[in-house]
């Protein structure tokens, strides 16, 4: 758990204009910066970045957030990764309560990661330069229908034939980083007496693999002839884990947003060829089965994921593994489909033979996850017999158990119940599904806190926009919020506590990030504040002081009325009456002093 104090400090140090400017071309426009929104198609800029609020907001699609939020939405990073990325850029180290690594070792790990990243970058530049003079590699790519433009887009390169070509790049060819990054291999005799080092990749088309930050973390290399292995990948390294990365995701991010879906294919060449043929929203797993982490990454980028597999037996097997990886991530607002091409085709050959529109139609008609799951469960079983229906249920059980309770799971349960002559309740009971949906009693709708209106809404708006004002509020001010009713008063006190925790230097961005993590209750209010010109804090402070003073005065009047209505004696009333009167006089004196100062 990253401490909130660190998040606040981080957002105070980074400049959102610099962060967003790495990905969006921004131009100064008044107090803010403007650019084309990276989250939807637009021809005229409606995307604004406020250096004073440290917040971005799009007037077109409503996207908004802090530097952390931008990295999460744009790059598909998780919250922790986004924080670490920002922290690294400003020289901060993210604290981790569970991290038992000594500081010296952590610094050594960071130094190692930087050395590996630098080595991979230099190797990528070298391979890219080698491709320009490799006639055989260029001929191969042209024969596959690829242009120099698409090769440049993916920074494709060529590893020459020599055993130690990387010596031209790394004068210290014996450096440990070259082995740790997987660029070279050390071969040692059985008796350990002789060690020989040589390049891992030779005579191969090189596909750099990038992480979400655009850094090269690994390579895939394809042979030009019929040699084996056909594809050679970088080994697992501190930078590169195949189960976490997807080829082409960095290059496809904007295209995925434009298309509204991501197409997951089986290989590097599929991704590059599809980009060439008009489908730049394609990515590929890296020589390994699709994992749940892959699916999680993709669903951060888009609400629709379409897996494209060859129609042969291997393609069906890969699709089944992808299905199993998807099920833990399935929600009702996400769509996952499966596209099966004829056995003689991969996506590249299909588009070249049948055309763009035909492949687009195949994508449109891809099989929904629910249908694929039921088909997998039914398999070759004879559903006209009790044994066949029981076997279908047996095969479906682990699949449904891996899904979270949802409307989609209920729909699949109903479908399975229909083909196996059961009821949804029987299926859920038999499978011991967590939180059964079909038999659950409907709880009465929970009444949330009333929406803030009027004066309460104004106070909330000003405190969110200017968190340091929370520090100005004393206990009496918090008590005066009872004027709005218990639930509204509690909301105001919670907000004040959050603002006070940030201290006098807390900003709109830091408080917004904290509120976003704890509740969606403030999301629309934050969006409104982000879209408006920044209010003058001094004027707001004067208004807030006057408003709270009036709330305090009203609270004192109510207390006096309650005292007199209880039938108490003058002695019983006297002490508190004098206290209230003194506070009223103090409030009146403060008001008079302010009026005189104007």
Automatic annotation (TrEMBL):
Give GO terms for biological process.
Answer: DNA replication, synthesis of primer
Cofactor(s) recorded for this entry are: Zn(2+)
Show the Pfam families listed in the entry: DnaB_bind, DnaG_DnaB_bind, DNAG_N, Toprim_2, Zn_ribbon_DnaG
Residues in CHC2-type zinc fingers: 37-61
Which CDD domains does the protein's record reference?
Answer: TOPRIM_DnaG_primases (cd03364)
Q: Specify the superkingdom.
A: Bacteria
Q: Which PANTHER family match?
A: DNA PRIMASE
- The entry's protein name is DNA primase
Q: Which organism is it from?
A: Massilia eurypsychrophila
Q: Give the organism's phylogenetic lineage.
A: Bacteria, Pseudomonadati, Pseudomonadota, Betaproteobacteria, Burkholderiales
Which gene holds the coding sequence for this protein?
Answer: dnaG
